[in-house]
Amino acid sequence: xxxxxxxxxxxxxxxxxxxxxxxxxxxxxxxxxxxxxxxxxxxxxxxxxxxxxxxxxxxxxxxxxxxxxxxxxxxxxxxxxxxxxxxxxxxxxxxxxxxxxxxxxxxxxxxxxxxxxxxxxxxxxxxxxxxxxxxxxxxxxxxxxxxxxxxxxxxxxxxxxxxxxxxxxxxxxxxxxxxxxxxxxxxxxxxxxxxxxxxxxxxxxxxxxxxxxxxxxxxxxxxxxxxxxxxxxxxxxxxxxxxxxxxxxxxxxxxxxxxxxxxxxxxxxxxx
Length: 272
Prior knowledge:
The protein is an all-alpha fold.
């Protein structure tokens, strides 16, 4: 059992993968707590797909794709809110429009870029074992920015999440907070793509937070528990990926889903 845990850590790539996985396992559920409360589960999947053009530009010009994806993610997050307000559309509708448009643009750019070779499987499903030191530094920087943002805006995020009607009294400040939340969400998704991939990053965003929602009553406790569950799922999935030759993103998702299924089963039996 000890060898099962310690042996992979002899390799530098595994240590980097572990650091990246823990960061994603913690940060995605922290933002996911607000996502679940606001009924915005679809937004994680949309933003993950929408940053593809930025990643392609990174591949084309020879810079780290995670760094290149940051301005794209921030721009799309701002556009979601702007389109929703100016066009009078629901947030879900704006998300759907930009999700489809940006992902189609990214695929078109990939098809026309003959000078780059991208492994679409790693892009879609994640490959934490391929994380470079630069990836880890970028992830740590983004994590620090998002944690500071959550600390500074937590009160207003709670207010607008649980009392959206009342928060309209402070419309200007609420709009700024909503923009900031979408930007932080985009940043976290950028670091999540490396580990869980474009397709499955939404799972790490939503499933641990939804599980925590079933276990606790206080929102702050929900954030803490979801982060713990996310980190556990990420680390367990990473080890399963290493030892059993599984893709990392699906392995993490299956672990998180298994925990959710156990909680659901326990809750159903509890009243008996």
